[in-house]
Amino acid sequence: MKQSYDLMVRPVRAADILEVTYTNKRWELFKRFRQGALEIMAALDKHGIESLVHGSVARGDVDEHSDVDVFIPYVVPSYRVEHALREGGFEPSKREVVMATPWQLPKAHVYIEEDRSTTFPLVKPKQLELEFYYFGGAVNLKQVKQGVRVPGVDKRLILIEPTNKGHVEGPVVGREAEVAKLVGVGLEIVRERVQVLTRRADVGRTGIFVQRELAPDENFEAVFKELVEENPAMKLRLKEK
After folding, report:
1. Domain that holds residue 190
2. Percentage of the chain surpassing pLDDT 70?
3. Alpha carbons 56 and 36: distance in angstroms, whole number
4. Tell me, what's the pLDDT at 241?
């Protein structure tokens, strides 16, 4: 379901400023997703692990296709993450190592349910890789508890700015510097995302370089080490740490 929806989303190169008012149903959906994020983030925080929730759950413009992805923005031993989740009552349904390209950030994904997951990097992220999450909107545990919503850019390359009634949306293309300032990131990540998303719309998805599911008795660090040994191209990203 989610994959087919993603394929339908195309970036918008030009758009009018539009004010969107949420229905009660949409506000309830937002509260449900926020609660789902809060439970995971609180379980991690109890064990000293800071995290963010990003995307539509941070902005507020959720719909039935949204999901909760809690991101840990620094390297942390996988056993600590998995122990914290299990202590919080979350039993992983799937675990996998994902690397989009040989030069991009290798990440560990722990899926709790179909629409809830925790992600953490397997090497130290570069600044641009961290700003990727803030580009789409990201909030920490304290902000989630306070009900804070933040501006961010969706997959259509539309800037979402929260309001008391819903949000205001407008184009990113042609407003890159303004958007960077509004979402609190550098201009480089805005230009990079515009390039990537428009190219993806033109040529289609090119697949994922590495996507390796772990067996129950495997750990992320060992699997990642094996993958690096099997795929010399993965060393490109490691050299950039």
Report:
1. 2-238
2. 90
3. 13
4. 53
